[in-house]
Amino acid sequence: MIKKYDSTKLHQLVLEIYQKYGFSKTDSEKIAHTLIYTDMHGIQSHGVQRMIMYDNFIQSGKVRIDSKPEIIKETPVSAVIDAHFGLGQLNGIYSMDVAIKKAKNAGVGIVTTKKSGHYGIAGFYANMAAEQGLIGISSTNSRPAMLPTHATQSFLGTNPIGFAMPANPHNFILDFATTTVPQGKIEVYRKLEKDLPALWVAKNGDQPVNDHNDTTNLDLLRDPKSNVGLTPLGGVSEFTGSHKGFGLGMMVEIFTSILSQGDISHEIEADNLAVGPCQSFIAIDPSMFGDREQIIKRFSAYLEDIRNLPAIPGKTIYVHGDKEALNYEDAKQNGIKIDDATLAEIKAIANRLNVDADKYLN
């Protein structure tokens, strides 16, 4: 079952939990903001649903509470950052801030970060730049999950890409895994006891796995030695464009692990404390190309032209960011959706840390 909970109270609960872990109040505020932002925009796979995974990482030492990101190579337009295995959200905010500052000074900022952690949704960091009048791009590699086209074992991560550009009435935000769906969406469907509706997961390279009760296969999703993995965007056949999702995943790998000289997806293991994801953060100042306000105005008109195209009866044409903006307004008024299984996980974490979750959830 899914219920709605007040976003402000939930923010305070997450803030208190992360302070109990030992994060500073400032850092805990940043963590809470990214998680609640994600749920308020309707992306349940990467909001508070992820707290149980972060809890496991913190307890195992894969996430180091006191670590701070450090610039180890820098030019006026670029930087390489060693995150020293701090929490991914904190590394991401720091890294995009560096990219934004460089873009404001030089027109463009490109940052690549290694030894990081799971940082949530790529679109959050891209939108950090858009909120300051810039174009933002962010991506991350991850543990193996994607089956390269025609392969029977996973090798690439879900390797998402986030892109954001200022627009009216709200920013354009494109955020997608280069697999058909992210790992977190599979987790949400299993918690809700819903079968997978399409070819999201395959075994032996091309055989669909749809039954949410198929623990024999679904529990092997993150095991690169198994014959089960997530399909690339485009599925398992070149006829449907599988090679395009596979290629996009490889492009992410180049901008994250290859340029930072960090860990490639297939080198990242859940139990190996010496390896971690790599990320990239790009900020671009549109004023390099002309009057910024006119560029944004023209782009906004372009998006409106798309929304006003003739639509299939009963359907609405959305551009990227529209649904998220609608979700945000609904969540602000009516609360954030949380399923019972995720709620139980959060309460268990809170209880162990001596946090009274009920005062925030009633």
UniProtKB/TrEMBL annotation:
InterPro entries (UniProt xref): Mal/L-sulf/L-lact_DH-like_ah, Mal/L-sulf/L-lact_DH-like_NADP, Mal/L-sulfo/L-lacto_DH-like_sf, Malate/L-lactate_DH-like
This protein's record includes keyword Lyase: no
GO MF, any single term: oxidoreductase activity
Pfam family, one: Ldh_2
Coiled coil region boundaries: none
Domain of life: Bacteria
Keywords: Oxidoreductase
Family, as annotated: Belongs to the LDH2/MDH2 oxidoreductase family.
Protein name: Ldh family oxidoreductase
Natural source organism: Ligilactobacillus ubinensis
